[in-house]
Design goal:
It is found in: Endoplasmic reticulum membrane. One of its GO terms (cellular component) is endoplasmic reticulum membrane. Pathway: Phospholipid metabolism; phosphatidylcholine biosynthesis; Lipid metabolism. This protein is an all-alpha fold. It has one domain. Helix content is 75%, strand content 0%. α2 runs parallel beside α7, α4 runs antiparallel to α7 and α6 packs antiparallel against α7. The chain is elongated and about 55 Å long. The mean pLDDT is 89.
């Protein structure tokens, strides 16, 4: 059961009306919304591919923008943590090293996902018509679905623990929610893209 008193005490440290906290929430929510809207628009119109001369160039451009936005998100996340109080009793070595270990595992999932998918596979290449030959089933995809997203979430969780930050923990929950919503939209859409590919191959 959830300890309601502990939750109230934890989030009593968080000022959700703080400007930095609000900016962090908006940046977290904006990123997956942005790349899903742009990628679906590209899939429907091929407008970016026409502007940049090829689907691959357009995908690399979008990937670069996503990377910049992720850096902005991380900066806003960190600044929001720094502007709010730490949790009493958590600012100890065990909390710091636990957070460090969680961040290391998250980083492993993110990097291994990128290496398994490649740049275009990571940054929505399938929406640009750059399809992979087959579904990736090697590590870390044989451990969990969407390891890039959950690895990123783990990094934020670890970062929050390292800073003993209730605000960071709450923002990590926002990250997890935003990725959960993104998966609900991306999963079926991506599956449909590959279903059409398989249908096209069989019809030849």
């Amino acid at each position: 059961q959830v300890d309601v008193a502990a939750m109230v005490r934890l989030f009593g440290y968080v000022d959700v009306t703080d400007t930095g906290f609000i900016v962090a929430v908006l940046s977290i929510a904006f990123n997956p919304l942005f790349w899903n809207v742009v990628a679906r628009w590209e899939h429907k119109t091929r407008a970016l591919s026409q502007v940049f001369g090829s689907p691959r160039a357009a995908c690399y451009c979008l990937g670069a923008v996503i990377l910049v936005l992720n850096c902005v998100r991380s900066h806003c996340f960190t600044e929001a943590m720094k502007s709010q109080p730490k949790l009493e009793g958590w600012d100890y070595h065990w909390t710091y090293y636990s957070g460090l270990a969680i961040s290391a595992v998250g980083t492993l999932f993110v990097i291994s996902s990128f290496l398994a998918l490649g740049f275009t596979g990571t940054f929505l290449g399938d929406y640009f018509g750059i399809l992979m030959e087959e579904k990736v089933t090697s590590f870390p995809f044989n451990v969990l679905d969407n390891p890039m997203y959950w690895g990123s979430t783990a990094i934020y969780l670890g970062w929050s623990l390292m800073h003993a930050s209730p605000a960071g923990l709450l923002l990590t929950a926002v990250v997890a929610i935003s990725y959960t919503i993104a998966v609900l939209y991306e999963g079926p859409f991506t599956e449909e893209i590959y279903r059409r590919k398989q249908k096209g191959v069989k019809s030849k």
